[in-house]
Specification:
The protein is an alpha+beta fold and about 130 residues long. It has a single domain, classed as K homology (KH) domain (GMP Synthetase, Chain A, domain 3, 2-Layer Sandwich), CATH 3.30.300. It is about 40% helix and about 20% strand. It has a 3-stranded mixed beta sheet with strand order 1-2-3. The radius of gyration is 16 Å and the shape is globular. Keywords: RNA-binding. InterPro entries: GTPase_Era-like (IPR005662), KH_dom-like_a/b (IPR015946), KH_dom_type_2 (IPR004044), KH_sf_prok-type (IPR009019). One of its GO terms (molecular function) is GTP binding.
């Protein structure tokens, strides 16, 4: 029922968030989809590296932060199969969204990220006490 208006963004633009944050959100989505009840809810994802190569592809390095050492095993899975599956599916989705070849590197680190408000801002999130 709303009248048509001008486009606020390019037709090809998928989102108004930066691509670095988009990459982290795609990885985080795969964490939720693949781990379900096993997911450590104290986890966060940050894009630490974004490098465009000469051939037009992009190297993206995402870090999954968990709160306890025991949670790293949940995210990694047996012999790294879960983190590999998360990375593969996230990479395929990112390639489709960005329209270019993506080399996705995923890492798991243990850090008490929720106790440090400055980390929220680094990840593109807003901290409110």
């Amino acid at each position: 029922m709303a009248p048509p208006g001008p486009w606020l963004y390019d037709r090809d633009q998928l989102s108004d968030i930066p691509e670095r944050l988009l990459a982290a959100e795609v990885v985080r989505e795969q964490l939720y989809l693949q781990l379900r009840q096993e997911l450590p809810y104290e986890c966060a994802v940050e894009t630490e590296r974004w490098e465009t190569k000469e051939d037009g592809s992009v190297i993206i390095g995402c870090v999954i932060y968990v709160k306890r050492q025991s949670q790293k095993g949940i995210v990694a899975g047996a012999e790294g199969t879960r983190i590999k599956s998360i990375g593969t599916k996230a990479r395929l989705e990112l390639e489709q969204m960005l329209g270019k070849r993506v080399h996705l590197l995923t890492f798991i680190k243990c850090r008490n990220w929720d106790e440090k408000p400055g980390l929220y801002r680094q990840m593109g999130l807003e901290f409110r006490a």
